[in-house]
Amino acid sequence: MAVFQRVNWFGFAGGITTIIVVFVSMLYPWWQLTVGELFKTNASPVNTNFGLLGTAFTIPFIWALNVVSLLMLVSSGIVMMIYSIIPTKTYSKNLLNFSYTKPLFSVVFFVVGLFAVTLILQAVLSINVPLVGSATVTLPESLTQGLNVSLLLSAGFQWPFWVGVTAAALCVAAKLYHKRIS
Amino acid sequence: MDKVRLSLSILTIVIIAVPILGIVITYRNNPQDLFIPPEINEITTNLFGSNGSGESWLQTPTLVGPIEYDHATRSATFTFEFKNSFPVGVTINSLSGYVECAAHGVPLGTATLKEPVMMGSGETKTLSIVATWTDVALSHFQSLHPGENTISIDFVDIAVNAGGLNIQSNETIRIDDVPIA
């Protein structure tokens, strides 16, 4: 029983949740943007893809960042689980410091990245893309060959995003709890 | 344990560096494709230019069949044929515009799509557009087109709502031989 008392349960739950987040995020987006029936963006730290007029595609550089994020989260989850069952070893703090920040950074960078993209679109193309909710935007005529084209954009965070937030919170809790058991 | 910290640091560097360097090396000959994939150019070409089958995705509807005039409702019904060349299904929810006399520029009334039309990819359907003449139009016909059975009209300020897009065109579509009596 003493062994179980030494387990950092926040870390264990955080590690498992992080692994779950990776698998879920491969299938379901954290954030989705749709433009009528014609355009859809599915974004998450591990899988971002676009669908325009029936053609699905990814942006290679974003794909590479997704792979980085995927490997980071998987390694973080595994290391966090290893740490959580041996939190009092001399090297455990190194394991914890490696693993607890990754889910948090994934959530923060994801939100900051989305926010930055919307600001860039606003500044460069004067297109106001909502992070959450719906908005009607008018495309610049330079993009539409003189036609006046307005679009209804709908965007929102999906449930996997909140699983990611939960994983990040559990990992931060593991860091705080570590002080009590070490 | 410095070995553990060192191992984790190396792991972090490898995880970051390998995918980034890998993709940069893969696209070293076409660096623009790293950020703008070829699919985007393909879609743009198909949308505004010519695709592999020799036709653009954006096509102008063609007027087909006779224009029917209903005296009771003072309305003319135009039948257009339109092919959905988009690779996805599209619903045309509404289509509206103003009708003007082509010879005098006098507003004659409004034109609207009779009912929404759902079109599968590659499907050709007919769109019924109904133009209703106003009292001003009837007076115009009597004063400036006496004895004429048909006139030429212009569709202007055409607005289309399709697939979640609202498109307002500045293009004028001229139609000849529109019955007015």
Spell out the key features of this protein.
heterodimer, A: 182 residues, Butyryl-CoA Dehydrogenase, subunit A, domain 3, 5 helices, 6 strands, B: alpha+beta, Immunoglobulin-like
Concise synopsis of the structure shown:
Chain A has 182 residues and is of the alpha+beta class.
> Portion of residues in helices of chain A?
55-70%
Order of helices and strands of chain A: HHEEEEHHEEH
Quaternary structure of the protein = heterodimer
Q: Mean pLDDT of chain A, rounded to whole units?
A: 90
Going by helix content, strand content and strand pairing, the class of chain B is alpha+beta
- Write down how many β-strands of chain B occur, each being a DSSP E stretch of 2 or more residues: 9
Distance between the termini of chain B: 96 Å
Q: Within the CATH hierarchy, at the fold level, what is the topology of the largest domain in chain B?
A: Immunoglobulin-like
- Quantity of strands of chain A, as a count: 6
Task: Write the CATH homologous superfamily of the largest domain in chain B.
Answer: Immunoglobulins
Secondary-structure element order of chain B, N to C:
HHEEEEEEHEEE
How many individual helices of chain B? 3
CATH fold assignment of chain A: Butyryl-CoA Dehydrogenase, subunit A, domain 3
What is the CATH first-level class name of the largest domain in chain B?
A: Mainly Beta
Please give the order of strands in the largest beta sheet of chain A.
4-3-2-1-6-5
CATH-defined architecture of the largest domain in chain B: Sandwich
Please compute the radius of gyration of chain A using only Cα atoms: 20 Å
Strand residue percentage of chain B: 35-45%
The low-confidence runs of chain B, each spanning 5 or more residues with pLDDT under 50, are none
Number of discrete domains of chain A:
1
Global structural class of chain A: alpha+beta
